[in-house]
Specification:
Length: 270
């Protein structure tokens, strides 16, 4: 077996992994705030809230004196590696090459979601919303909607609800969510390949990253993902294995920036 690798092949394989990761790797990454990091720690500013005040004629304005605090997360390195015995076949078989690339992208995508969900679960508000029956119902989602509103979570199209698949399946029992009589044919769940469904101002989707019995609602600005090294790939020949080792890798860390923007909805039916 030749132990030299064409540079063009490596670039194409890396591109396959990166594109697959962007397309189907992570469900949570594009729903949170991200920041590129140079060092080993990412820091996000949490800015407090305040109210506007009046002033008298010729008087001085009153500064809001917003509270500024910092939250941080430590970067960690993650790898998805695979030995390839027949690299020559991979060079000429595009489908095989893309299958290996997609496996690596999926592994890194699942890890990205696991990193984010672990941060959300650990840093969520102590206020929890419990379902009121054997399955999530409209009343439970309305209670969640009220909680988000009461805590001034912005209604700007960036509210998300990440659900365990079982909890998401419960929503199909809600007519206002799943019936064309209410939402029309074009807005039915998964109509036209939809992966998210908007309901009560939340973009709702299913992911196996969420623990059974839990669903998590959050605003994009409330979660931070630091990226020290985005997804990259290298291919090296390993003589002892008489194979090539394709290694895709990344370095990331996540943290809740503001727990007032992250809430768990518990589902007793999961």
């Amino acid at each position: 077996m030749a132990n030299t690798i064409d540079t063009a092949f490596i670039k194409q394989f890396e591109s396959d992994v990166h594109l697959a990761y962007q397309r189907m790797g992570s469900k949570l990454r594009n729903t949170v705030r991200t920041s590129n990091v140079t060092g080993s720690v990412v820091r996000f500013q949490k800015i407090g809230s305040a109210e506007a005040t009046t002033k008298s004629r010729n008087g001085n304005v009153t500064p809001m004196e917003l509270a500024h605090t910092t939250v941080e997360a430590t970067m960690a390195d993650y790898y998805a590696a695979e030995y390839i015995d027949k690299l020559d076949e991979l060079k000429v078989n595009i489908n095989e090459r893309q299958a290996v690339a997609q496996s690596a992208a999926a592994a890194l995508g699942r890890k990205t979601d696991a990193i984010l969900y672990a941060a959300m679960d650990a840093g969520a508000s102590s206020t929890q919303i419990h379902d009121t029956g054997s399955a999530l119902a409209k009343a439970d989602l309305i209670s969640l909607f009220e909680t988000l509103g009461t805590n001034d979570v912005p209604e700007d199209g960036q509210r998300y609800l990440a659900m365990h698949p079982k909890g998401f399946a419960d929503l199909f029992l809600i007519e206002e969510f799943a019936s064309s009589d209410y939402v029309g044919d074009k807005n039915l769940p998964f109509a036209g390949g939809m992966t998210m469904k908007e309901f009560l101002g939340m973009k709702i989707f299913s992911t196996s990253a969420v623990t059974a019995g839990k669903n998590i609602a959050y605003h994009q600005s409330a979660i931070g993902l630091g990226i020290n090294s985005d997804v990259s790939t290298e291919v090296n020949y390993v003589p002892e294995k008489v194979s090539h080792l394709a290694t895709s890798m990344m370095s990331m860390g996540a943290v809740v920036i503001n727990d007032a923007g992250v809430y768990e909805e518990l589902n007793n039916n999961s």
